[in-house]
Amino acid sequence: MQVLIDNRSGLPIYDQIYSQIKAQIISGALGEDTLLPSIRNLAKDLRISVITTKRAYDELEKEGFIYTVAGKGCFVAPKNVELLREENLRQIERHIEEIARLAGACGLGAGDVAEMVRLIMEGEE
After folding, report:
1. Closest alpha carbon to 41 in 24, 53, 32
2. pLDDT number for residue 50
3. Residue 37 pLDDT class (50, 70, 90 cuts)
4. Fewer C-beta within 10 Å: the chain N or C terminus?
5. In this predicted model, what pLDDT tens digit does every residue of 97-121 receive, in sequence order?
6. 7 vs 2: CA distance, rounded Å
7. What are phi and psi of 33, to 5 degrees?
8. How does DSSP assign 49-79, residue by residue?
9. Rounded distance between C-alpha atoms, residue 64 and residue 9, angstroms
10. Single pTM value for the model
């Protein structure tokens, strides 16, 4: 597992950790039941507070991406298809919001954008 902290990023450090681990779980880079680094070891490796890594792990557990076994550590949770679908839908919505903003700045209407999406999706088949 690789986590990189960008001190110039506007995102809090716990959110950077959370986002990177979540992305690795969703992409399959971290497989089901994979043991994650301990909170203390990750904090030591990243040279950050244990509280910060604990907060990231707590968020991941709250959202169902990891689970904790007392005395053993934190593991990647079995993939919940519905949870992954919801996460993908949220990402699509964020991208659509950005597309709408850019389209408006270029003077493109919904029909123009829909046509672009149709052409791109046809090209992938």
Report:
1. 53
2. 96
3. very high
4. C
5. 999 999 999 999 999 999 999 999 8
6. 16
7. 65, 15
8. -HHHHHHHHHHHHHTTSEEEETTTEEEEPPP
9. 26
10. 0.69
